[in-house]
Amino acid sequence: MAAVVGLAYLILIYFIGYETPRESFNQFIALYLAAFTAFYILWLNRQNWSFKTFLAIAIIVRLILLFAVPELSNDFYRFIWDGELITKGVNPYAHIPNDLVSQDPFYSSQYMKMLWRGMGELSQSNYSCYPVFNQFLFVIPAGLFESIQANVITFKIMMILGDVGAIYFGKKILEHLKKPSHMIWLYALNPFVILEFTGNLHFEGIMIFFILGAVYYIMKNKWMPAALFFALAIQIKLIPLIFIPFLFKKLNWRNAIGFTALTAFVVIGLGMILINEEFYNNIQSSLDLYFKSFEFNASIFNLFREYSFATLGYDNVIEDGPFLSKIAFVLIMLLAVFRAVREDKHIFGGMLFALVIYYLFSTTVHPWYISLVLICSVFTQYKFGLIWSFVVMLSYYAYSNLAFEENMLYITIEYVIVMSIMIFEIIKSTKKSNFGIQIKEFFQN
């Protein structure tokens, strides 16, 4: 029975990757529901499978998607574009793609035209915002091939290696915490992770590998390799910066100073390779769009938006976005100050709820962002991240129509389910009826 379910799982991932265009939302969500069900059945029958067998399945299911062109994201076109710029001696932070399209012979090739068309209007008209180390990863396939398919395959191999690295450190962390090592499969065999990383080529997968490496070495009181891993995680995406207060609590003050200094040295040192003051301003202009213009799969922000429409007659995202981000920052700092991190197992709890706060107050929560919530939940008693990795796919409804309009019913269902389960798990974990004691124990657990 388990073997049949495993085979069905592989087939379902194949059909999602190769036979499901982004416009076919009903087909996608039906196949995803089936794949998630198959994955969970495999998990429930984990006693019948060895760790090596699960690892083999994890690698095989990713290899199935090796030749699939991403359907649910066109970000990879920009990845390749930036990599090609660097190989040609052009700084990716110096120009927006639209500024380069008329320059011959740079843009004259059909290959570069395909990249420019594929990335879409938003990316065409804005500077690159990907950190320098991430840019170096873009260069690897661009320096080897002048083919979109070959670049995609190379990226996928990188994603698979990143996932294997995450499994390695995840297993070691679980063993350190004296938790069952099979818990890592809630992350690594999850169809959400497979589709978003190997399928859609989001570099959060490689970032998670570096984050887990950093946390593992902190748990082992090895702050130098921890700082190196953490700096590289930041140089993939900036989101790990919110974890710093929770990592500090496991370091004595001398190691914390050393960890901070080495992390800053690596981050700044790598940044200086490609970034000067002018290019920093260019990057900042693109990052500002995230807080002041982008709107997707939001929760609290949607309430603010409806209020703005009712009182002002327009969407006030340009003010509401930064305001909500400031609230999130204050709440995360308060969480960091008051949440106890007495034991290694508490690190991920702090990181998990910092992410929840950040995403609840964000204007944009793309599905692949939830991968961080999912991996943090693996090491805690909270499993609402697993549920979120399922229901977040409802947000892909917006990709099925040319107007990119969201279905607010689906968004409401997503957040009602996730928040209800989260609150239930918090209350359950305290095992007390008094609310004040619950809150106190929540910060201590």
Mean pLDDT score: 91
Shape: globular
Major sheet characteristics: none
* Helix/strand class: mainly alpha
Number of helices: 22
Q: How far do the termini sit from each other?
A: 39 Å
Strand fraction: under 5%
Low-confidence stretches: none
Elements, N to C (H/E): HHHHHHHHHHHHHHHHHHHHHH
What is the radius of gyration computed over CA atoms, rounded to a whole number of angstroms?
22 Å
* Helix content, binned percent: 55-70%
Number of strands: 0
Report on this structure.
This protein is an all-alpha fold and 445 residues long. It has a domain at 295-445. It has 22 helices and no strands. It has helices spanning 2-19, 25-44, 51-64, 75-87, 97-100, 110-124, 132-144, 148-176, 185-188, 191-199, 204-219, 223-234, 244-248, 253-274, 277-292, 300-311, 317-338, 345-360, 370-378, 384-391, 408-430, 435-444. Helix 3 packs antiparallel against helix 8 (148-176). The protein is globular, with a radius of gyration of 22 Å.
Looking at this protein, list some descriptive labels.
about 450 residues, about 0% strand, mainly alpha, single chain, globular
